[in-house]
Amino acid sequence: MRIGYKNAWILTMDDAFTEYRSGYLVMGESLIVEVGSMHQFEETKADEWIDAQGGILLPGFVNAHTHCGMIPFRSLGDDCPDRLRRFLFPLEQKVVDKPLIAKSTAYAIAEMQLAGVTAMCDMYYYEASVAEVAKKMKMRSMVGETIIDMKTPDSQNTDEALAYTQAFVDIWKGDGLVHPLIAPHAPNTNTEDVMRAILEFAKANQVPITLHVSEMNYEIDYFRKTYNQTPIEFLESLGFFEVPVILAHGILMTESDVEILAKYPKVSVVHCIGANTKSAKGVAPIRNLLDHGVTVGLGTDGPSSGNTLDLFTQMRMVANFHKTHLNDRSIFPAKEIVSLATKGGAKALGFEKEVGTLEEGKKADIVLVETASVNMFPVHDAYAALVYSANAFNVQDVWINGEMIVDNKKLVNVTLEVLQRELKEGMTMFEEYAFELSKQLSFE
Ligand SMILES: [Zn+2]
């Protein structure tokens, strides 16, 4: 059965940025089989056609850094200094358990899919549950259990977390949709010995590594005092960049850090502008990284850090913050930002052979953004419309692996209201506590 879209403004996101102002795309099974201009359209090329009515068809968005289990903490202590150590770590110990993670993950994936996100990279706790939910919801994913040198909701110490990761990798290695990785929390929140063990694990099991890096001032201070290095220099000295590694944030990287990363083609950086700027940490040197040829994707970070899990919010902030920061309106064209949110993210996660562009032979991870809503008229430049005018509610249809996941703004396989009710039930034991805490924090 071949299904096609016609009358779509198609952004293929291929290397030449080929676009069809009025085009068609045909899917067969899980793959894209043809993309072209309406001048070449023939009814017989597909068994069934969906009329896009001028909507924008593009590759699915990739949220390359998130924590699906953190939905319950959204809008809690947003303006509180050093929230992570003072507030989130203790709260996690108190309330995070396996059922809550499963419910939160289902809700987070639903939110992402409704926003056109077709692939994600997740790290948190109880990641075996995250992987199961991701598989059930047909979400293309990289998933890893957080390894951190303290007691966590699901392990007493890093030995347990490493054993959990081994069991997890053994189960998920080879799955076509949900891929395991190893996820140290950050270079400063694990001992050097554990960081070395993690690298050996990645090599032995042939899985990528993801971690937060160059994010916190205290992280930078720690490495300067302990090693007289930057976190990036430290990771390089351990040999981390010889394996595929996905670095989240990288806000506080130096010019020489950028030059180091440019030497290693297996390294990618995930830019989380929303979370980085809400917490006043700064604007990562993304323009410089891209000019040095480093792979960059976009991420929302967790829902308590970035709040929304869609890439539209991030794309707009990438444009606005970088232009302002570098005092140059032309520094980040919309076209390049859409590329970071789609192809860049796919490459950052190692998915570029399968997805990231609308090209023949690629897996059909596709998003249709309607242009009929009030905020979407007129469209002179589809890239600019996506970055500056559109929002997640303009996403009409979403396909992953050639399967329809969102049909006319509704999830096909699950009901959002049900997922929300289930999550809310799981949160009742701490809602009152969180509200009181939130009031306390806002008065500090
Ligand atoms: Zn994070």
**What percent of residues are in strands?**
15-25%
Query: Tell me, what is the CATH class of the largest domain?
Result: Alpha Beta
Heteromolecules bound? zinc ion
- The span between the termini is 60 Å
Main beta sheet:
9 strands, mixed
CATH architecture of the largest domain: Alpha-Beta Barrel
Overall SS class: alpha/beta
Residue-averaged pLDDT: 95
What is the total tally of β strands? 18
Spans of at least 5 consecutive residues whose pLDDT stays below 50 are none
**Judging from the principal axes of the Cα atoms, what is the shape?**
globular
Number of helices: 14
Compute the CA-based radius of gyration.
21 Å
Estimate percent helicity. Answer: 25-40%
CATH superfamily of the largest domain: Metal-dependent hydrolases
Q: Secondary-structure blueprint of this entry?
A:
Blueprint: E1 2-11, E2 19-28, E3 31-37, E4 48-51, E5 56-59, E6 61-66, H1 83-95, H2 98-114, E7 117-124, H3 127-136, E8 140-147, H4 158-172, E9 178-180, E10 183-184, H5 192-205, E11 209-213, H6 217-227, H7 231-238, E12 245-249, H8 255-262, E13 267-271, H9 273-278, H10 286-291, E14 295-298, H11 311-326, H12 334-348, E15 366-369, H13 382-389, E16 395-400, E17 403-407, E18 410-411, H14 416-442
Parallel strand pairs: 1-4, 1-5, 6-7, 7-8, 8-9, 8-10, 11-12, 12-13, 13-14
Antiparallel strand pairs: 1-2, 2-3, 5-15, 15-16, 16-17, 17-18
Helix pairs in contact: 2-3, 2-14, 4-5, 11-12, 12-13
Summarize the structure.
By secondary structure, this protein is α/β, with parallel strands linked by helices.
